[in-house]
Amino acid sequence: MNTEPSLPNILFKKILYVTDLSESGRYAFPYAARITRLCDSQLTVFHVVNPRNLEVLLGFTSDSIWKDLANRSVDEARQILLSRKRDDVEIKNSVQQHCEECLADESGRPVLSYEVKVEIGEPLEKILDEARRGGYDLLVISKHGNRASVKDAVMGDTARRVVRRCEIPVMVVPLPN
Q1: What is the pTM of this model?
Q2: d(Cα 128, Cα 46) in Å, to the nearest integer?
Q3: Structure confidence by residue, pLDDT tens digits, 84-93
Q4: Which residues, including other chains, have CB under 8 Å from residue 75's CB and lie 6 or more apart?
């Protein structure tokens, strides 16, 4: 009888990369991409539009569109808001562009395919919900996002709370020195 402990067979078949589209958020993408390639995994790039920032989106809608949104279901309204332009680019396209810029130096590598998901809501809850519902094996996030306070300088508030509450392994990628 073999009494040596054996290592569990850990497979990363579905990886969730969370980004706030900040410069510091970019540092985690190459890690998610590399693990995806090494493990022949599926990669989902996930961005959450905080409802407190919706006024930025609403600035790109007319009064008639805003009134129309109020009379629609939440899902329909969400799709309309996400398709509105911010800085002349749809939000989903901004996430796509973010990933492509991160991969620009990888021209000699095989193509990396990934799915882009954008949600509107409280970032922590949306991230935890996506990690739980999506059947992911690993969540990759940057250590720093948009810093709002001194305590966030040590580890971004969202990243810290994700690590504390997430039910799957979380890889936190620090900024380079």
Answers
A1: 0.70
A2: 11
A3: 444 434 556 7
A4: none
